[in-house]
Amino acid sequence: MNREWDVFHPFEKRYNLKQRVDMTIWSRVSGKVIQGHGVASGQANDPRFPEGTLKMQWPFFTSLGLQLDAYFPGTINVSIHPHRYIVKQAKHTFRQVQWSDDAPPEDFSFFDCRIVLKTGQRMDGLVYYPHPETKPEHFQVPGTLEVLTEFIDGLSYGLTVELELNSTQVLIVANQDETPLV
């Protein structure tokens, strides 16, 4: 759910000026870029997925109404350890997507996020979440989020980034308890 409304001030209404106000409540958490399996991007050289699983999945997501063309066809794996996340309400969920003859159907969800670099640059993206209960292999460590965004020049393993997550979609909690980070 996108919580963006058109808000008018009397002056703006009188002169027909419109201002968009983003009412999303973002939770922010630090994370470290870590190496993934390389299957999503095709770097793993898996003969079943020569160009990567994402390039194979994207046409299915597009046919279901999710356009990902602006994003790099690979994920940025961000460890938020010692924190973890709890899925609340995805922006998009697709069930039983049969995207490959070499894999059973899977469920996928996507959540709004922004990645904030040390330079202060903020980039919109999506958390890519293949549901673990339908995923046949290549599982992520709890506390690792897979982020889709545009290509980021100079990004490397070990780099600390900040993630901003839509708190109506994903809740970030300390590993020991259910206390949300604000």
Describe this structure in words.
This protein starts with a strand and ends in an 8-residue tail after the last strand. It is mainly beta and 182 residues long. The protein has one domain (25-174): Elongation Factor Tu (Ef-tu), domain 3. The chain has helices spanning 10-14, 53-63, and strands spanning 4-7, 19-22, 26-34, 76-79, 83-87, 92-97, 106-116, 122-130, 144-148, 160-166, 170-174. β7 (106-116) and β8 (122-130) form a beta hairpin. 23% of the residues are buried. Mean pLDDT is 80; it is low at 1-16. It is built from two helices and eleven strands; from the N terminus they run βαββαββββββββ. The strands form three sheets. It has a six-stranded antiparallel barrel with strand order 3-4-9-8-7-10. It is globular.
What labels would you give this structure?
Elongation Factor Tu (Ef-tu), domain 3, 2 helices, 182 residues, 9% helix, mainly beta, two-stranded antiparallel ribbon
Question: Gist?
Answer:
The chain has 182 residues and is mostly beta strands.
| Total number of strands | 11
- CATH architectural name: Beta Barrel
Weakly predicted, low-confidence segments: 1-16
Query: Can you summarize the main beta sheet?
Result: 6 strands, antiparallel, barrel
In quaternary terms, these chains amount to single chain
